Amino acid sequence: MEIPTETKNLIQKRIDEIRQQYPEAQAACLPALHIAQEHLNYVSDDVLDLVADTLKLPPSFVQGVATFYTMYNKRKVGRYHLQLCTNVSCMLEGAEELLMGMEEHLGIKAGETTSDGVFTLQEAECLAACGTGPVLQINDKYHESMDLKKAIALLDDLKNKSESRDLATPNADPSNPRTTPAVKPAAKPVAKPAAKPAAKPVAKPIAKPSLKPTTKPEAKPAVKTETKPVAKPAATPKAKDSAPAATSSASSDDDKDE
Q1: Under a CB-based contact definition with an 8 Å cutoff, are residues 15 and 29 in contact?
Q2: Is 137 helix (H, G, I), strand (E, B) or coil?
Q3: Lower Cβ count inside 10 Å, N or C end of the chain?
Q4: How confident is the model over 205-251, as pLDDT tens digits?
Q5: Pick the CATH number of 80-161 from 3.20.20.450, 2.120.10.90, 3.40.50.720, 3.40.30.10
Q6: Cα within 13 Å of Cα(40), Cβ side
């Protein structure tokens, strides 16, 4: 199996990134095989060598891991790997009738791949979703409580999506962002912010001069007026003292008359 250079570089980049999450390279072997299978559909000898070389592990170790687990496809399968559980719980919910309806719609039997390489249909044992059967696993996604009407609508939708296959990852699932190269959205024109009108100068209020505190004149102490003692009037001589004088005067007059 020849691996396209762009796909090979993408796989190695993803494995290198996931390797940083594990203390040893051996622990990263399982997720590395999943990454390779997501891009290339199955793990061929070339894929095993690519994983071993990227993780710097012996090829025999990687091959032993890949052949031990049934989740890794050892042969090429369709772009969409359909695995329908037909175990007891799902069978009681109509899984066998659903399988026959899907075979008729796709034109293949279980274990076969459609001529356009889009679908591979297989029976699976238990998918550990017994309470929501029948369960249909498409690649790594579960679709529960399925019936024939839902299954046919889903298959038709996947058929339409398969036409938008990317050349760099021919086996990528368009619904799986890990295997489909991200398409950058067109840059939106950056709207320039509207020019704001010039701000009008704000007139500052004139500062009022601060009022100087009025200093009250110091109160002068009241001058004490000296009260002069009121002069007492001279004592009027008593009348008794003047009586004799009058008498003597009168008597002298009498003497003259004599």
Answers
A1: no
A2: strand
A3: C
A4: 666 656 665 566 566 666 555 556 655 656 555 554 444 444 444 44
A5: 3.40.30.10
A6: 31
